[in-house]
Amino acid sequence: YFLIFAVMRLTKPTLFTNIPVTCEERDLPGNLFNQLMKDDTSSVKRAETLMLGETLTLPQNFGNIFLGETFSSYISVHNDSNQVVKDILVKADLQTSSQRLNLSASSAAVTELKPDCCIDDVIHHEVKEIGTHILVCAVSYTTQTGEKMYFRKFFKFQVLKPLDVKTKFYNAETDEVFLEAQIQNITTSPMFMEKVSLEPSMMYNVAELNTVDTAGESESTFGSRTYLQPMDTRQYLYCLKPKQEFAEKAGVIKGVTVIGKLDIVWKTNLGERGRLQTSQLQRMAPGYGDVRLSLETIPDTVNLEEPFDITCKITNCSERTMDLVLEMCNTNSIHWCGVSGRQLGKLHPSSSLHLALTLLSSVQGLQSVSGLRLTDTFLKRTYEYDDIAQVCVVSSEVKQS
What we know:
Belongs to the TRAPPC13 family. This is Trafficking protein particle complex subunit 13. It comes from Himantopus himantopus (Black-winged stilt). InterPro entries: TRAPPC13, TRAPPC13_C, TRAPPC13_M, TRAPPC13_N. The chain is mainly beta. The protein has helices at 32-39, 244-247, 396-400, and strands at 3-9, 14-15, 56-57, 65-66, 70-79, 85-95, 100-102, 110-113, 118-126, 131-142, 148-160, 163-171, 177-185, 191-200, 204-208, 211-214, 217-220, 227-228, 233-242, 256-268, 272-277, 281-284, 291-297, 301-303, 308-316, 322-328, 334-337, 342-347, 352-361, 365-369, 372-376, 381-385, 389-394. It folds into 3 domains: 3-160, Immunoglobulins (Immunoglobulin-like, Sandwich), CATH 2.60.40; 163-285, Immunoglobulin-like (Sandwich); 291-394, Immunoglobulin-like (Sandwich). Strands 4, 6, 7, 8, 10 and 11 form a 6-stranded mixed sheet that branches. Strands 14, 18, 20, 21 and 22 form a 5-stranded antiparallel sheet that branches. Strand 31 (372-376) and strand 32 (381-385) form a beta hairpin. The longest helix has 8 residues, at 32-39. The protein starts with a strand and ends with a helix.
């Protein structure tokens, strides 16, 4: 071959780790080891025994490549002969388990390459798959005698998973959905978590619950240092609420619902950036049957034997029109105020209505709101609702004091 081909991965340097060797002054070496560490240019002054270093070290091997990082490589083709070669074409492809990507900056051939001259190229690729990757570098050229030459080189490397992401969904009594995302650093080096956000689907608005207000300022619940140490796990919490135009549609709260996707950005080593975006997260929404009853407003604490108001929301989740009748049944502690058996009228599919109801409690303590019955006169079917919510009942004297 007339040409020599070289490929080198471009990575950031690392901080040199100084291994301390010391002993007590009464030992045979005396203060010799301590003095050597103080004179070592790679150690931090007055912190020689802490394995800290001030010197940058060039990479000694290929290193690890993690999903979401950018793979950079330097490609050089050198004419090692004493002849001029022509029509040099350098091509770099990245072969993954699912696709083949062209990473060459230019597809045009170089007209000629003189002796001891080089063709240089730098390629970049954001890694989006885990597993085996093969960098295929090919060079074709023509000699002075008109002979066409061609050769290839293969460089295999593994892409590892940097984070372990687990999600949990919690369905509230309302249409709100709480998402807990557990993110674990499964690499061997600390990560600076630059951003962890949830991009909701078109049906939801999202509120991040990862900050607290202190003296009028918002602070992260993880503190000012957002570093995630190796094998450490951090929990992020989000609250999703359907947008107003979807909140009244019963179809939003039935079946499998697309919630959104997590967007995670981090930095490692000397500012190397990585980014991961999960696929669309889906949760199995709870089934509410044909009719759903939920509480819109209810007080936390009420006085004993004093009336209090609640607001209920009734939604027709079926595909047919209902003619509903409301019945209120007293329990041992909860007593409903008003007329039982009143007509609510027709309720069309995916429609809702709000009811303002009054009740009182004759027993102190944490009492359960129960005893509502809805009857569909068309099918003669009754839906029972007990343990709808809880309310704390206290004596009026206790509340005033």
